[in-house]
Amino acid sequence: MTLYIVRRLLQSVLVIVVMTALVFVGVYVIGNPVDVLVSTEADQEDFERMVRMLGLDQPLWKQFLVYLSQLLQGDLGRSFAFSEPALKLVLQRIPATLELVAVAMTMALATGIPLGMYTGLNPHTPIARLIMGTSIVGVSIPNFWQGLMLIFVLSVSFAILPSGGRGELDTVLGITSSLWTLDGWQHVFLPALNLALFQCTLIIRLVRANVREIALLDYVRFARAKGLARRRVVFVHILKNTLVVLITVVGLQLGGLIAYSVVTETVFAWPGMGKLIIDSVYILDRPVIVAYLIVIVVMFITINLVVDILYSVIDPRIRVAQRGEH
Amino acid sequence: MSDELLRIEGLHTHFATAAGVVRAVDGIDLSLRRGEILGLVGESGSGKTVTGFSILGLLDESGRIEAGRIVFDGQDLVAGGEALMRRLRGTRIAMIFQDPMMTLNPVLRIDTQMIEAIQAHARVSRRVARERARDALGVVGIPAPDERLRAYPHQFSGGMRQRVVIAIALLHAPDLIIADEPTTALDVTIQAQILHEMQRLRRERGMALIWITHDLSVVAGLADRIAVMYAGKIVEQGDVDQVLDAPRHPYTYGLIGSIPSQASSGRQLAQIPGMMPSLIDPPAGCRYRERCERATEQCLVEPLARALDARKVVACHHPRTP
Amino acid sequence: MAVDAQVRPGGASALPVRSPVREFAGRYAANPIAVVALAVLASIAVIAVTASWIAPQNPYDLSAIDIRDGRLPPGSAKLTREAAIGLGIVVPDVRRAELQFEVRARNRSDDAPAQALEVRVAPAADGGLALHLTPAANGPLDPLKSVQLRGLPRGSTVSAGRKDRFRNVWRLDPEELPGLSIALPAAASDRLQFDVLATGGAQRHLMTYWLGTDDQGRDMLSAIFYGLRISLSVAIASVVIALGIGTLAGLCAAYFGGRVDAVLMRIVDVQLSFPTILVALILLAILGKGVFNVMLALVIVQWALYARTARGVALAERQKEYVEAASCLGLGAGRIILAHILPNCTPSLIVIATLEVAHAISLEATLSFLGLGLPVTQPSLGLLIANGFDYLLSGYPWISVFPGVALLITVVAINLVGDELRDLLNPRLQR
């Protein structure tokens, strides 16, 4: 078990190194690094000063080492637009994004699991057919356009909710979040809903498929043969096995939500790291772009790692398979 | 109290599939006395497993009992519906499945799976239920039952798992156990142990047993009576010795002939030509007709089951003479 | 369950023998939703291919669009422009009993000759001036729509119409013209000079903006037709290229195994553990936008999927005897891969490629919406929606709603067709 975790950790570190190398190649080798790191308004003198400062006269491998050492010190340059350290800017935006993602994931799970259970257990009822019919639209609908339509219906036509921005912040138990205020909830609801809808349809389909598969297995039939009430068969024997599968998917989807929050944050003007990267791309604030890329890569690798380990802890079958392997 | 425990009359169980209605069980009659062991024999797809599921009401959602009566201890299970079934399942009728690897829920501990089975029918505390579960494991010969209760199914070997399943089936001392090929997935030595165990339990508790199998040699030493199924119908039933030593139906004869035995070693094994017909649109008349060497024009009419003597019933126009 | 086993033995032999294609078509036709989806998809493809012929307007021909038609709601009509005329009128001496006056056309760009509007001036009873304006019958200004008087002396009053609040302009409706008189201020000079501007004439109905117009006066329906063409071609082209590269990589990995396999599949694994949107976003953030870059990004995010699928199927096929037989015959690796293994991967790859077209369309639209995708010269559906975003909040929802509906219908249709293909081609689910 420990060996497995250590091996996964090493793998993750390797992937992070490869990814930072790729970013290095993308920014320093393919693009002209001075173009990338100096603002577009810089004059010739700034330009030459920057070339010397970056040590571009040095060989490439030396440049890479310098880049790595700066990276390890958390130095990714200063933002042109905000003249602040780029990494700090990105890190500052993380709480807003995580807040959005957390609310969205909760919404998706809270609706997706019951609906998936229902459609899986009663696949032929009209309601189940309606849910499944709607879900193919839910899977197909482009997320950004769905956001526009939510704004159009709920913010413009009915004027129930604000169309964008983050609400008032408050600090409770040392955590600063907009979820402590009513205004915050009003603001987070629409973007979270937009982010959750796609996840919700995915979860419905996944839970449904799993429930249908599991319901046919012998151990469910055996549970019925023991004379258990239907409630217990469904909520203990079927649900628990479904949840095991769901945990990995939810973990991986967490990454998907962070990725898609770029779209939602842009549509709803939500001040998270996704909006920051898009704004930075518009104004070619390249240090921020590089910082974002590295932060997101590290986040993803961490999530994947945690999911893998969590999964092997939760599912006894996998736990044993690994024990046999080592 | 009547001697008869279970009687099945004209049972038809059908499945709705995309390809059409599958007549998996197509009119069978069967009866079972208390404490009797019946071997229900047939090749895969003959409807023997579906018969077992029909008795317990465990059919898939696509399956339905279209006609017939299943009378258990005076109560009609088909008419009684799900409420009656749930009261009987686990308490008076229990079932053991083919693959012990698949029968226990992999994410629940053994104690959870046993205690829930006890508490489904008896209003007892968790502690009492746990003690009963531990005793039940002891009865089926599982060492250190206290410790094993806290284990997950994957921590048991196949034979041990099947013992756990049997222990669960025995929890409420049922009158009838339906065992669906419970030894097929196990090693031969484990098979023998389980068979021995089942016989001992039958002796001690007087419960009846329906042993579903495709393997005649397994039931030979175990069953009191044998019913042979073919394509959704029972073609022959009778006392175990009579059926095995003097088969009357050509199919039973063919089945016995295809078992390798010491007596037949060196000779070529007999095999039955052809395949079992589709149960979606089965041919009229005798269903074994097309594979049968004794078939005549008469076989285009469905043969009815008739008693050849007091203890033997055969559905054939041209039964073999013993 | 046992039922499967029960159906197979007799069922297989009982099936009538039909050609595989016809049998496939028959099974496809059994699902009405999939048939409708296929029909919709075919129509969309036809629209995309023939967009330049069937679109009511070329939305990117600046001479065809009229900015005055901007933001018209759906169902509005595009009319020919009405004729306009500007006349300068000079009256040398207002007090002379028999008034002499002069009419001259004010600018050359007028749509109608000066004769289209007949002008008469006469002294009025109170020392003012009576003005008769009559459009020539059946002339270019008949019927009159509006009349303006400009440049009258300060303090003049016109007997009808409304004076502009800020400028020295009087506006009149045609019905106010009979008996029109101008009262001049006492201090006015004898010589009077003013302008008459008139518009009118029958307007012809040119076309209907069924889905409204955008801010530039572009017909949304035509813009959507052209947008579909761009979205579909970018998506299909990238899928085809990715399919080629991915399949080749997957087959090589499966055939050569060993280190080639390990390296390729490690890359595939790492790449597939990142969401496609994120990979595409990162690439375009580095590369910048443009048609080539978008296609490159789409290819890069997709190839891994095909590689993994092709490898999986190919590995299973490689174990089979016919491949061993072929290699025993001394056939080359290339030949075995292409002629023996590839055909077996085709069904799975077709299904994935179909579904990936939908995915690619969506992804390209998203990237374009974010401003990282196609340039404004290649207005795909995503860019159309992005254009309409600003107007969504200000009461012109159709500019982004309709392109989105078109996008949604396309993606849903492809997904439905792909799902059905998967059900039919997946041997595991075949009944």
Our estimate of the beta-strand percent of chain A is: under 5%
Distance between the termini of chain C: 14 Å
User: What string gives the helices and strands of chain C in order?
Assistant: HHHEEEEEEEEEEEEHHHHHHHH
Biggest pleated sheet of chain A: 2 strands, antiparallel
Using the alpha-carbon principal axes, give the shape of chain C.
rod-shaped
Structural class of chain C: alpha+beta
Oligomer: heterotrimer
| Helicity of chain C, as a percent range | 40-55%
SS summary, helix count of chain A: 13
Mean pLDDT of chain A: 81
* Rg of Cα set of chain C: 36 Å
Entry keywords:
heterotrimer, B: about 325 residues, alpha/beta, 11 helices, C: about 425 residues, alpha+beta, about 15% strand, disordered N terminus
Describe this structure as you would to a colleague:
- The complex is a heterotrimer of chains A (326), B (322) and C (431).
- Helix content of chain A is 78%, strand content 2%.
- A two-stranded antiparallel ribbon of chain A has the order 1-2.
- Chain A has 326 residues and is an all-alpha fold.
- Chain A contains 13 helices and two strands.
- The longest helix of chain A is centred in the last third of the chain and has 38 residues, at 230-267.
- In chain A, helix 1 (2-30) runs antiparallel to helix 12, helix 5 packs across helix 12 and helix 7 packs across helix 8 (182-215).
- Chain B has an eight-stranded mixed β-sheet with strand order 6-7-8-3-9-10-12-11, with helices on both faces. In chain B, strands 2-1-4-5 form a four-stranded antiparallel β-sheet.
- Chain B is built from eleven helices and twelve strands.
- With 322 residues, chain B is of the alpha/beta class.
- The mean pLDDT of chain B is 83.
- Chain B is 32% helix and 25% strand.
- Chain C is of the alpha+beta class and 431 residues long.
- Chain C has helices at residues 2-14, 20-29, 32-54, 220-256, 258-272, 276-287, 291-318, 321-328, 333-370, 381-392, 398-425; strands at 76-79, 83-91, 102-105, 117-123, 129-135, 144-150, 157-158, 162-163, 169-172, 181-183, 192-200, 205-209.
- A six-stranded antiparallel β-sheet of chain C has the order 3-2-11-6-9-8, with no helix packed on it. In chain C, strands 4-5-10-7 form a four-stranded antiparallel β-sheet, with no helix packed on it.
- In chain C, strand 8 and strand 9 form a beta hairpin.
- Chain C starts with a helix and ends in a 6-residue tail after the last helix.
- The model of chain C is unreliable at 1-15 (pLDDT under 50).
- Chain A binds chain C through residues 15, 18, 23, 26-27, 30-31, 136-137, 139-145, 148-149, 151-152, 155-156, 163, 216, 252, 255-256, 259-260, 262-263, 266-267, 277-278, 281-282, 289, 293, 296, 300, 304, and chain C through 1, 270, 273-275, 277-278, 281-282, 284-287, 358, 362, 365-366, 369-372, 382, 385, 388-389, 392-393, 395, 397, 400-401, 404, 407-408, 411-412, 415-416, 419.
